[in-house]
């Protein structure tokens, strides 16, 4: 006998959970269906940084702030520990210092500050390398993704009555029902959050959007001496990727210098993002290699590039690499979030950037409000 729901969400990653929350908060009966036994995609492999700064004025900046707000509520209610708050972008070169200082003074970066080298060294003694200043954003939070996802799912089930169907693959959606490997599930409307599976559901639609997949290498490392990160930490390599800085005055000069001095980092899409777990170890990444079918091989060259950048900030490489892994996510050069409407009552939502988890809750709120309006009409 098919079950009846108002909203079915395909995908139990962070985007799927965010849509389930938005549906449940609207008073709807929601089911989340995932082919795996637990979330095992990008959402549990990520660095866990909920990023806020770096968006130009307007919708993107508003969405980032709204999503951060909901992340805060979810962490508090679902018992997810916030490991640290804030993001320090260490400017290793004067070119990075100049674009970051200018951005810190603008309206889309409220609360952000740029510290000149003397102040930066005094405030952040952890940064022992030669630095040209530090951009500080206070609003970012960091969560341990691997444990956060199951906690959020359990909270949605217990506090919001969301039903979960794990180990259940969805093969088709239409006529008010989802065909699954465990039999049909009836739902008035559906949201598909397939991560980087761009072929199984509505593949014809997704194939026309110029999406591809990105593979990212990550490590957990440990230094011999213990020290506390002030927040998440990144460098010039991240600054050139920030959407708000793409056309900023001085960005070309920074790009040119990085091309001359760190061509291998750019070739492998390496940026430094370091965050700290409750046990003091650091999660560090990441690379970005684009391919329709990412290969499964981890390259030592890429690990070395990440560790070199870490050493440039903290004065030396960590003694121990505790673990290594890779993750893949959907990627588009110009559409960080894709929302498609293949049917009146179905939406397909793909986070197509390396910061999809940050935007998840605001995107879900917008999509569910629009979809439930369309379903009710
Ligand atoms: C190494 C790495 C580091 C990252 N760091 C950050 C970060 O610090 N901050 C940030 O904001 N973002 C980060 N990201 C990006 C972020 O992880 C992703 O954008 C986000 O997790 C995508 O969530 P999702 O739910 O769309 O996808 P996923 O987490 O991949 O979930 C998709 C789910 O859909 C299920 N599924 C797909 N098709 C079907 C089907 N037909 N039937 C049933 N189930 C199906 C899959 O089993 C999977 O569980 C990082 C990504 C990686 C790989």
UniProtKB/TrEMBL annotation:
Keyword flag Lipoprotein: no
Keyword match Flavoprotein: yes
Official protein name in the record: FAD dependent oxidoreductase TIGR03364
Domain FAD dependent oxidoreductase: 6-368
Cofactor(s) listed in the protein's UniProt record: FAD
Gene Ontology molecular function, alphabetical: oxidoreductase activity
Gene3D superfamilies: D-Amino Acid Oxidase, subunit A, domain 2, FAD/NAD(P)-binding domain
UniProt source species: Hansschlegelia beijingensis
